[in-house]
Amino acid sequence: MKCRVCRGEAVIDVRRHNANFCAPHFLHHCEEQVAKTIADFEMMSHGERVLVAVSGGKDSLGLWDLLLRLGYAADGFSIGLGIEGYSDESSEFARQFAKERGVTLVEVDLVDDYGFDVETGARAARRVPCSACGLSKRHLFDKAAIDGGYDVIATGHNLDDEAAVLFGNVLRWNTEYLARQRPVLPARPGFPRKVKPLVRLGEREMAAYCVLRGIDYQVEECPMAEGNRHLGYKDALNAIEVQSPGSKHAFYFGFLDKVAPVFDEEAEAEKEALGRCVRCGAPSAGEVCSFCRLVERAAKGRRT
Ligand code: SF4
Ligand code: ZN
Ligand code: ZN
Fold first, then answer.
1. Whole-number average pLDDT of the chain
2. What is the number of the ligand closest to the CA of 27?
3. Which ligand is nearest to the CA of 60?
């Protein structure tokens, strides 16, 4: 197997691009893909302050590393979710990364700062754990970026993630979610701009990137993810990709190109509908936002 660029010994094949790469040229390929994504979707510029949502996994740490290598002023943000056998380890990987590079990691802890962990919060609010977790993460990322004066939040969603979410939303025709599924969500009052610079890179490429760059990351998946529909969609798409390399890319980028504009009106309408949470001031459809309601229910759940 020869590197497409230098004809030296290749260490990875990327079937989607019909190409093999040696280690240095693979790392260069990843940087190029991210730089191209940032430029194509006008995600951010070099003078801006970026907050990277860091879980301690390969995607978020790989993204943080890539943005630093591309010269962006990127700090990390991690949330202690209180998930046993997972959260402490994840935070440790994020701290180690920051320490080794002398970069800033902003941390918030659900238990210490808000008095509940994902599991008890979910139970009290009668939500599934991933729903309580997702809404907490979104709220706290937005808050951290706004409080810290960051221009943009970057998340490590890769091509596999985005194609699987799209697949699920199309299967159920969740048009409200389809309207929001973009690699860039522009800023609006109370929400910073959000970008996904890894949408051109797959899961396997991100794992290889971290290994080749010597980045230690949390390999274990969150125990709550088990049985998650999303994982089933990933498996289905992986089976299709084996038969027909490039399908995920064509599915996702075809959507952005040909279908997403259909939902522009729906996305606009949603923007206008929001007021402010009377407790925390965050944008909210109701008087009290869903995060404040979750905090309240978790506190009640603890007392009973
Ligand atoms: Fe949160 Fe669910 Fe992801 Fe675990 S799998 S980190 S509970 S969203
Ligand atoms: Zn090479
Ligand atoms: Zn609130």
1. 94
2. 2
3. 1
